[in-house]
Amino acid sequence: MSEAAVGFAKANGERFVEELKALLRIPSISTSPEHVEDVRKAAEFVADGLRKVGIENVRLIETSTAERKGHPLVYGDWLNAGKEAPTVLLYGHYDVQPAEPLDEWKSPPFEPEIRDGNIYARGAVDDKGQMWMHVKALESLITADGKLPVNVRVIVEGEEEVGGEGIAAFVREHGEQLKADAALVSDTEMFAPELPTLCVGLRGMIYTELEVKGAATDLHSGMYGGAAPNPFVAISQIIAKLKGEDGRISIPGFYDGIEEPTADELKAWKSLPFDEEEYRSHEVGSTELTGEAGYSVLERTWSRPTMDVHGMPGGFIGAGAKTVIPAKATAKISFRLVPGMKSESTFAKYKKFVEEIAPKGVTVEVRMIHSGEPIVVSTDNKYVRAATSAMAEVFGKDTVFVRGGGSIPIVGDFVRELGIPTVMMGFGLPDDNLHAPNEKFHLANFHRGIESIVLFLDKVGAGV
Ligand code: BES
Ligand code: MN
Ligand code: MN
Predict the structure, then answer these.
(1) Torsion of CA 182, 183, 186, 189, to 10 degrees
(2) Which tens digits make up the pLDDT trace of 323-367?
(3) Which residue range forms the structural domain that includes residue 107?
(4) Which residues line ligand 1 at a C-beta cut-off of 6 Å?
(5) Pair (393, 362) in one structural domain
(6) 218 and 197, same structural domain?
């Protein structure tokens, strides 16, 4: 029963953290070609970890095809709880975002360090630490009880941070290999410290590259300035026309079909402990908050779409000055999507609009890098109830339901392709610095996460 497993987790907590440190030392940055081997090392580490705790049929599943070189999936299962027992699919990702800017880190991103009860490293909370909680919850149950209370399949991907194309193809083509009654995802945040939280919705996204070309080659800006088109000026003009000063995106038809949150959901959001001024000054750290007029911060980040520019490679960016009219400019631009929007049609509207507004003298090309659909999950099922009561028990407080502004592309496929209820039980904190320098995971939450997962699996097994 769970007491023994929780006791085991408590007694072995320090070792669990040491193991996590070893995983965090592997720079499994999925977007960098130079880290392909590190990404594989992290996959092997997770596979070994699963084998050691008694998970069966553990293997790497290659996702490379003739068209693309992908990172492997890690699969394992334990299906000895009997045919009557439910099967839970545990999902996480072992890849991480790049660590730059490196000089902003207080300790190096791939040399995990514990300070003030937090473990600092790239991937600490997103998602190596949270994925490792799953593995350690399984270990605690198997070691303490000799068995699991439910059947389990584990799938851990190495491409979440680059769009999750490999796992999406696997689910489409071999969905039966992940057959389960529900999925558990720990890759989201709690709304506030000490406040147990289930995430019930994620935004989708399209991540694009806009390339603008002017002259046939770079030109001397004195000799040609005044006559030759400048792609950086053109790209700025295009970007400026995508969004109005009121925060509304100007692409025709962009907001068509959006599903509003229900009145109950909006009411629940209003009662969450949210201090806009504190959020502005401590989390965002800007002089003002921006965004679409007429919506609250939680609505703007959870249930409204947005557009952001991530960087503009090209031209002269070295120290000093160079008087050049670059031949081309690029911008990395993404949109977050909400229920009612589809990635493909949103991309088509955006591309058409950009082509229409392109200034004269330049050619534009709009490319999709990756995409994922938005999702809101149902909360009316026994899996959500098991998670709600597991977390409430561990934290000693009622669990709140929130949405997340981020995206986990495969969650939509679990719900739509596999047709299974998905529980997003995450233990990150708002100040964990995901994707930023000094990413951390609050160690108390690592341990409480393991306990919550143990209790969750036990409750699901008991049919609660
Ligand atoms: N774990 C995050 C997503 C997340 C964060 C959801 C916080 C809810 C709350 C995930 O690893 C992530 O960063 N996803 C990317 C997806 C993209 C690259 C396809 C994102 O949201 O930018
Ligand atoms: Mn993540
Ligand atoms: Mn992430």
Answers:
(1) -70
(2) 999 999 999 999 999 999 999 999 999 999 999 999 999 999 999
(3) 2-202+374-462
(4) 126-127, 160-161, 163, 187-189, 199, 202, 205, 370, 372, 404, 406-409, 434
(5) no
(6) no
